[in-house]
Amino acid sequence: MRHILLVTLLLFTSLTAMADKIKVACVGNSVTYGYGLQDRDHDAYPVRLQQMLGDEYEVGNFGKSGATLLRHGHRPYNEQEEYKAAIAFGAEIAVIHLGLNDTDPRNWPNYRDEFESDYQQLIDDLHKAAPGGKLKKLVVCRMTPIFDGHSRFESGTRDWHAEIQQAIERVALRNGIETLDLYTPLHCRPDLFPDNLHPNPAGALILAQTVYGGVTGNWGGLKLASVYSDGMVLQHDAPVLRGRANAGDVVEVSVKGDHYSQNGKATADVNGRWELHLKALKPGGPYTIDLKAKGGVKGQTSSVTLHDVLAGEVWLCSGQSNMAFRLNQCVTAKDDIAAADNSLIRLYDMKERWETNNSEWPADAMDAINNLDYYHPTKWTSCSAETAARFSAIGYHFGRVLADSLQMPIGLINNAIGGSTTESWVDRTTIEGEFPAMLRAWRTNDFIQDWCRGRAAKNIAQSQNPAQRHPYLPCYLYESGIAPLDAFPIKGVIWYQGESNAHNKEAHDRIFTLLVDSWRQNWKNLGMPVYFVQLSSLNRPSWPWFRDSQRILQNEIRNTGMVVTTDLGDSLDVHPRYKKEVGERLARLALHERYGYERLTPCGPMAYAATFGKGAATVMFDYGTGLHAGKSGPVASDDHRIVTLELAGADGIFYPAEGEAAGEGRLKVTSKHVKDPVSVRYGWQPFTRGNLVNSDNLPASTFRLDKK
Questions:
Q1: What does the pLDDT look like over 244-254, one tens digit per residue?
Q2: DSSP helix/strand/coil, 124
Q3: For residues 422 and 440, what is the distance between their CA atoms, to the nearest angstrom?
């Protein structure tokens, strides 16, 4: 009898405990179910979610492989046993992740108009089944990604997936809630999706962590990207703070300086994201910024204080090895370093953990690289002989001239990786939408330079992972080095890259345009200036065409500009040691274009048109005042004549030509070998001694112009 009473008591206690638990219904398709996981009973995201939530919760997995949200779809969720079980479960919290299978051509093209009403019907059904007839919490999820390797990616899935995401956003808005973003945390990790659709255990864990944040609102309290730190320079005319906090937290911000104060507040959304646009700050400082987040989860409060903050102009210095080239490697290093102490300049130097040199990386590097953990931790530092010596030489000299000219703080973020490709700096959504062929089989993809593929293979030779990543992989440096900056406010970008894309100027024309658009979208500044360096002189046969394509690009992409460096090159070394001049030329361009120095000539002569007559071509130049033969750099010829000019007739054969000034910004070009010219070109050698300059002794760009 005593035994029966004990069993009855234990059963009653167990049932009471079960009744007290908060029920969470995970409604979805094969991703929720755990398809493809060898041990779904351990690794499926609802199982991991249960472990995170603990004993206060009961999580039910009601995922059905192949299920559609659409009720006229090929496998409607509302007709499945999992749907019936979810309704019978009587959840207080529902997490809905459906829509992936609706991208099937049998579904979305035919029934897209029914998607939102069908989604609303599912929500209403879950509400009715909840205790009291209403869910305590509804979590509507943006779908996890489908990657480019999916068989239907370009034939519809990519575009329909994006349209369905928008439809889900509208459904959430109608229900007065925000969508939980399952897309962004996973879109940067294609290596975690073996079949381009279903996450592996590591991907399922990220999914569970994200849903945990959506269910509980707990995102770990107040956090900012590491670039928001003591000693930073905040863009004075567009100061923005953003970061993470617990969902619903009110983030209060106080900015204080000498006889100055400003306050503001923002609220963290369901994804824990918040953003605050401050009023413009007076250049200078220092300022102290206090941030406090409170109220979101169980009354928790967290705070951060940023000290010694300056307000000024912030520029990103990016590209490959010539931008990474350190001040202590320059011809002028000794004098430059001795004069580098400058309280107006602050440096944020992002250095890679493994250089892309000709070596095999250690096996323990492979997981770190796949996890996007490629950069050393860093912090803002004042510019001194010690910190400047290891900083980008071009970046330093650019900042030095700006600080001196503007007399305000300059913040420089250096993020440049040796040998990196243009495509590695572009976000995945942009490449998926505009140039998906770039993503395919990258180790054998001819869009990617053979040298880059070979170097990458050498670096990751110790990896056994077929999905192993590398910094030269398309999108990788954006995901590991640009996205983590969290759109830290900047004025603009200086860029020196192209050596690793010079094998295919046509592809580079497309991808560089996408790069500029990608970064402008990221910083939500569609007019953000991007000033770049034309490739220098080097004995690589494709470079004349590539340099000319860069000249053309600056005219085709608004708010961009180019500086010429052919007079500073080295015939055998891809890393010319004359970097002071490059930084100063970029600064000159920025001062003219962005800071109102209209009388300052921004660059050397830029040919934009030519007319062809009997025996001569006349070339017109922007910034061509005082055209003459000059010695602008160590490589340029000191001949008193303008050299490397050429003319061609209808046969397309170019012959040496002579040039003479023919009025303001005009050059008359003739050759005794060409009676009726139809083409004119200048500096058309991989390593050129071209010496055409303007009155400011700035070198002219390589160019080729043909008769229309």
A1: 999 999 999 99
A2: helix
A3: 16
The pLDDT confidence band at residue 165, using thresholds 50, 70 and 90, is very high
Burial of residue 496 (number of CB atoms within 10 Å: 0-12, 13-18, 19+): buried
- The encoded tokens of residue 655 equal 């012959």
Contact 274, 245 (CB under 8 A): yes
**Which SS3 state, helix, strand or coil, does residue 108 take?**
helix
Q: Cα separation of 505 and 629, whole Å?
A: 29
* Cross-strand partners of 216: none
| Per-residue H/E/C for 146-175 | CCCCCCCHHHHHHHHHHHHHHHHHHHHHHC
677 SS3 class: coil
Residue 7: its pLDDT value, please?
36
Query: Are residues 701 and 604 in contact, defined by beta-carbon separation less than 8 angstroms?
Result: yes
**Residue in the block written with tokens 């609220």:** 267
Q: What does each C-alpha distance from 4 to 13, 15, 273, 422 come to in angstroms?
A: 14, 16, 54, 74
User: CA quadruple 96, 97, 102, 103: dihedral positive or negative?
Assistant: positive
Residue appearing with tokens 């496998």: 75
The Cα–Cα gap between 610 and 620 comes to: 6
* Nearest of 405, 688, 657 to residue 564 by alpha carbon: 688
DSSP 661: E
- In this predicted structure, what is the pLDDT of residue 299? 73
Residue among 668, 676, 681, 673 nearest 655 (CA): 673
What phi, psi does 704 have (nearest 5°)?
A: -140, 130
CA separation for the pair 646, 624 (Å, rounded): 19
Average pLDDT, the chain: 95
Tokens describing residue 284: 């200078």
pLDDT at 442: 87
DSSP run (H or E) holding 387: helix 385-389
In DSSP notation, 408-445 reads S-EEEEEEE-TT--GGGGS-HHHHHHH-GGGGTTTTS-
The token pair that represents 135 in the structure block: 């869910």
Residue 288 CA to chain centroid, in angstroms? Answer: 29
Alpha-carbon gap, residue 234 to 313, rounded angstroms? 7
User: What is the pLDDT at residue 9?
Assistant: 36
Main-chain dihedrals φ then ψ at residue 562, nearest 5 degrees: -135, 140
- Run of H or E including 518: helix 505-522
Q: Report the alpha-carbon distance of residue 491 to residue 236 in Å, rounded.
A: 9
For residue 658, pLDDT beyond 70 = yes
CA–CA separation, 669 vs 612, rounded Å?
10
Q: How far apart are CA 121 and CA 124, in angstroms?
A: 5
Other CB atoms within a 10 A radius of the CB of residue 30 amount to 17
Distant-in-sequence, close-in-space partners of 197: CB < 8 Å, separation ≥ 6: 30, 31, 100, 146, 147, 150
3-state secondary structure of 115: helix
Q: What is the number of alpha carbons within 13 Å of residue 300 lying toward its C-beta?
A: 17
Instruction: Please report the DSSP string for 685-698 in residue order.
Output: SSS----EE-TT-P
Terminal Cα distance for the chain, rounded = 106
For 564, the token pair is 């010429």
Q: SS3 string of 74-97?
A: CCEHHHCHHHHHHHHHCCCEEEEE
Around 705, how many Cα atoms within 13 Å sit in the side-chain half-sphere? Answer: 21
> Residues 493, 499, 500, 503: is their CA dihedral positive or negative?
positive
d(CA 324, CA 519): 19
Q: Which two tokens stand for residue 671?
A: 């050759």
